[in-house]
# Entry
Amino acid sequence: MKTVSEAPRIWVTTILFAATALVALVLVPLYGIVHGFQWQAWAAFAVYGALCGLSITAGYHRLWSHRTYEAHWSLRWLFALFGAASLQNSILVWSSGHRRHHRHVDDNDHDPYSAKRGFWFSHIGWMLRDYPSGKVDFDNAKDLQRDKIVMFQHNHYLAITLTMNIGLPLLLGIWSGDIIGMMLLAGVLRIVVNHHTTFFINSLAHIWGRRPYTDENTARDNDLLAFFTFGEGYHNYHHIFQTDYRNGIRWYQWDPTKWLIKTASWVGLARNLKTVPAMRIQRAMLDMQFKRAEQKLQQSSHRDGWRKLLEQEAQQFSAALGEWKELQSRRYENARERLLAKWESAAIRTRVKELEYSLKMQRKRLAIMMDQFHQSPAPAA
Ligand SMILES: [Zn+2]
Ligand SMILES: [Zn+2]
# Structure
């Protein structure tokens, strides 16, 4: 017998996940070999899959869970419908749970999908049993309960999700002339791919990857994962700066969700896109670099020379931060009193840009220092 502490199984989700995975792994290839799939079914799989995936990332996640921007009602309807099609529960349940995940990240008792409980649990296990950590509580989602579209979707979730998952592929199948093929690809395979790519954010993105911004939690940046998850793989950045509508902040980082939101803002469907000031991002990265440099020096026997250099850098860093804070407060106070002359505001902006740049250069210097430290344990005179 299992211990009494084992949480009771949730059969609906267990059967749903098992059945869809089984069909995707067995029936889909079998049908492909015996009968073959039409291109229409593959196209529907791709387009429908992208619509569902983006509704979760741009809608459920960045819009409703984190309020990183505001969206026009038409866009919210689209996200609500295709989000329901992704079979990941209603916006209200999903976002409330996700807010708890951020607030209590890695806390096994309160984070509904804490990565500290292992890969399986954070990937899918947390949904298969009625764990106390997964208790649904909308106390942290009062704003969402005031959103009519969110509540409509929540109250009619079953009808919407059945229509989207069975009705729509059925219609497409009738149109293309191969109902089974369409149901298998646009219905089941799409669901399974959508499910597991989203689940990877809770599991793999907390296990595998870099931590350039913070090591206070398990979240990682992972380019490969970002590619398969519409940009959500930059999870280390996301956990420290969750109010930013971007996850991949560099132009070359793969973040289609960010591009979608930005494009929507150009055509008037989104506004108030929130970003974190570049200076705060630089500060977080430098903090991490200093931390890592310190750790390396701890292990070195020639640490005195290096420590001096590092201390100089640290002093510059804190001076730059001090000046930045002062500039911020000056800007804030003046704006409040409406005293800010245009030229002064421009001067402050320029200085902030300079400080940003100086931090960026400092990060480069530190990286070179650490490289040299590896090659020769004593610094050049
Ligand atoms: Zn999040
Ligand atoms: Zn996370």
Notes: The first helix runs from residue 11 to 34. Residues 278-375 form one domain.
